[in-house]
């Protein structure tokens, strides 16, 4: 009789324990981290693609017995601290506030912008579902997704280190979770409703790229002094134009060497392979008082890049008086841009 009563009491206690486990709701929390989104060095000449990885870890704790947890997540990315509220295109800036355009996409083809459900221009977060087992006393699961970034080809760039921190409210991970000790629960209706609980976290990262100081020479027109009948009795003045492009805020110096036939600092044009020469000079100003040479900081032309084409005029002069044999005289000048 007493044995029967003890067995009944044991079964009752087990049933009570099992009932407590079934009725207790487990608590699920999630954390997330993102690797840096670095595009390295960009010049604007071509697209530059890069990636970063978001990793999400969710942990379920509580008195669960062989449970299954399902989590539905929405990962939102906004404009960033330096984005001026703009998500299409996004932008990084250097210390002067000069902008470099870029974009973050949800797909490797880079056709679907990764956005934020609160931003009308790009209301397209990334959606992720995560399922994992929760044995007695708790369990966890993890998942990851890739940020596909592109700095498109673009003109007018300014040199410097560009960045955009996506901190604070500029990333949002919203999630809802469901948990069941019997079978597999349905996923919550969305990342903001359904299930038995939820939360919101961030996954901060910084997008960065470096625009180097860079210059390219586009054209250098010939300096033709024309034909002079007889001896050279008057100064012969003509001009030519140099065109080049430097990244914005790049300090540059343009130098002209003395040519192929100079004697000391006296430039000369030569008649073919003969010993006959015509002296001439190149200047930085229209009054032709500032000789254009190759000593940086002394007799070169200096300026700052604008990110677009810039032009300089070379003022040439064949001084009078010179008496030389008839023929075609020429010389070759090397233009050097130092930056």
What does this protein structure show overall?
With 339 residues, the protein is mainly beta. It has one helix at residues 2-23, and strands at residues 27-34, 37-41, 48-61, 67-77, 90-93, 99-105, 126-134, 138-151, 160-166, 171-180, 197-201, 205-211, 215-220, 236-246, 251-256, 267-271, 277-283, 301-304, 309-318, 329-330, 335-338. The chain folds into two domains: 23-211, Immunoglobulin-like (Sandwich); 215-338, Immunoglobulin-like (Sandwich), CATH 2.60.40.1090. The chain has a six-stranded antiparallel sheet with strand order 13-14-19-17-16-20, with no helix packed on it. A five-stranded antiparallel sheet has the order 1-3-8-6-5, with no helix packed on it. It has a four-stranded antiparallel sheet with strand order 7-4-10-11, with no helix packed on it.
List keywords for this structure.
339 residues, 2 domains, 6% helix, disordered N terminus, Immunoglobulin-like, six-stranded antiparallel sheet, rod-shaped
Shape: rod-shaped
CATH topology of the largest domain: Immunoglobulin-like
Measure the end-to-end span.
Answer: 102 Å
Q: Into which percentage range does the β-strand content fall?
A: over 45%
What is the element string, with H for helices and E for strands? HEEEEEEEEEEEEEEEEEEEEE
Quaternary structure state of the chains depicted: single chain
| CATH architectural type of the largest domain | Sandwich
Spatially, the strands of the biggest sheet line up as 13-14-19-17-16-20
Which regions contain 5 or more consecutive residues with pLDDT less than 50? 1-24
Q: What's the Cα radius of gyration?
A: 36 Å
Q: Output the number of helix runs.
A: 1
The structure class reads mainly beta
């Amino acid at each position: 009789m007493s044995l029967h009563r003890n067995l009944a009491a044991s079964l009752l206690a087990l049933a009570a324990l099992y009932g407590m486990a079934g009725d207790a709701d487990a608590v699920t929390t999630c954390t997330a981290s993102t690797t840096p989104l670095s595009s390295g060095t960009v010049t604007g000449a071509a697209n530059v693609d890069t990636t970063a990885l978001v990793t999400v870890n969710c942990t379920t704790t509580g008195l669960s017995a062989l449970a299954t947890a399902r989590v539905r997540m929405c990962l939102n990315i906004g404009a960033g601290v330096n984005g001026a509220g703009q998500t299409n295109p996004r932008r990084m800036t250097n210390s002067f506030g000069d902008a470099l355009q870029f974009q973050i996409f949800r797909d490797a083809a880079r056709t679907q912008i990764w956005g934020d459900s609160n931003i009308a221009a790009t209301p397209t977060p990334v959606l992720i579902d995560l399922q994992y087992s929760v044995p007695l006393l708790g369990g966890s699961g993890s998942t990851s997704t890739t940020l596909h970034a592109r700095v498109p080809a673009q003109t007018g760039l300014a040199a410097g280190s560009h960045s955009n921190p996506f901190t604070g409210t500029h990333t949002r991970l919203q999630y809802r979770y469901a948990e069941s000790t019997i079978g597999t629960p349905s996923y919550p209706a969305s990342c903001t409703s359904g299930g038995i609980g939820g939360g919101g976290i961030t996954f901060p990262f910084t997008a960065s790229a470096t625009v180097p100081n860079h210059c390219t020479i586009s054209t250098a027109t010939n300096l033709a002094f024309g034909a002079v009948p007889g001896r050279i009795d008057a100064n012969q003045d003509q001009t030519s134009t140099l065109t080049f492009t430097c990244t914005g805020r790049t300090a540059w110096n343009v130098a002209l060497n003395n040519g192929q036939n100079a004697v000391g600092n006296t430039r000369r044009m030569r008649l073919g392979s003969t010993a006959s020469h015509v002296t001439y000079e190149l200047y930085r100003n229209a009054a032709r008082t500032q000789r254009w040479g190759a000593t940086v900081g002394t007799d070169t032309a200096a300026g700052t890049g604008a990110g677009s084409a810039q032009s300089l005029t070379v003022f040439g002069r064949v001084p009078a008086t010179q008496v030389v044999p008839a023929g075609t005289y020429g010389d070759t000048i090397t233009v050097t841009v130092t930056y």
